[in-house]
């Protein structure tokens, strides 16, 4: 288990290139299973979750060729579906949340698949209903095996059949799974209350390049006319909006001057505006974000002079993955903010570590925390910390970089799951961070 040793309180300076989007990568990598032809995908991040999924694909029989950094060619021509019955697959599948998205493509193409309950961050209940209900409505029989803790999905007829699907929740991975399955279903599928994040839009655009017939991209009402087969193509992953938000937050809390390059502004939604509501100055320079050094940033109040509330919501609302970072940033703001995490009831529990470091936070309940900003008048203190999940891990890392003194962060494999070479990239900005095995 690795550890980061961090000497905090140092201002950073420089330029940073965001990695490819983690969530989009996991969806697109599963999409390679829909065709026997070659797909070339660029800007894939070298992170733990992606490496795990690529290992699953490789052992499943997918040909993978590395063309360069983040640039791979895939061909799912000779797939061994018996691999799904192995203990090794169950171990890999339980280690990442994204493994569930293998179900739709394999079911549509081969008629059967066995999927374990997926792993991922322990941030509260993460239901599979959106996935399983959608695939069942398309014609799949689903049986749960208590011994192996796996779901067995099979098509009783020759094909999945298009259907009207009203999703109970706008699940991103659930939407992706159903869309991929529906591309090869017979007839027309309509998905209402679909997630419409940029990464879902990217997946749909790739599938259309491959020969799918998808309409309504960018809305919550998706129409898919099934085709007999899909072909190959090429695709470039968007920059990761959550990592971009992480760099903005880091620059603000450490009073640093940072330029984030090639951010794809049009796909950031309200992310920049949310940080501006926290009082953080950021400038649009072509397709870059420039954050000047600020000694203070003041949280804006609502129009009725009420305390600002920042909450997550389905796109185009704020992604829940940024709330942990915004919580840390608020600890050194001028003013107070209520953070409302609606989706996951365990995601805010990491704030007890921030309180130990000297932050003024009131955890109201599992979903809400009030942060009283210190305005850099009283600094966070270095501490021994443990990374509980990806987003809390990077948030504690940001807190440690702003704190006075030395911090140790254990279980950094959680951070590596979502952030590419984070210590190396931080050192290029001037951070004092050491990786210890």
Quick structural overview:
With 437 residues, this protein is of the alpha+beta class.
Distance between the termini: 7 Å
Specify the CATH class of the largest domain: Alpha Beta
Strand order of the largest sheet: 21-22-1-23
Q: Percentage of helical residues?
A: 25-40%
Weakly predicted, low-confidence segments? 120-125
Structural class: alpha+beta
* Beta-strand percentage range: 15-25%
Strands, total number = 23
How is this structure best described in words?
The protein has 437 residues and is an alpha+beta fold. It folds into two domains: 3-18 and 239-436, Enolpyruvate transferase domain (UDP-n-acetylglucosamine1-carboxyvinyl-transferase, Chain); 22-236, Enolpyruvate transferase domain (UDP-n-acetylglucosamine1-carboxyvinyl-transferase, Chain), CATH 3.65.10. Helices cover 29% and strands 24% of the residues. The protein has helices at 22-31, 48-60, 87-93, 103-110, 129-137, 172-182, 198-209, 241-253, 271-277, 323-330, 351-356, 390-402, 413-416, 422-428, and strands at 3-7, 13-16, 38-42, 63-68, 71-75, 112-116, 141-145, 150-154, 164-166, 188-192, 213-215, 221-225, 233-236, 257-260, 283-285, 288-291, 308-311, 336-340, 360-365, 368-372, 384-386, 406-410, 432-436. The longest helix is centred in the first third of the chain and has 13 residues, at 48-60. Mean pLDDT is 93; it is low at 120-125.
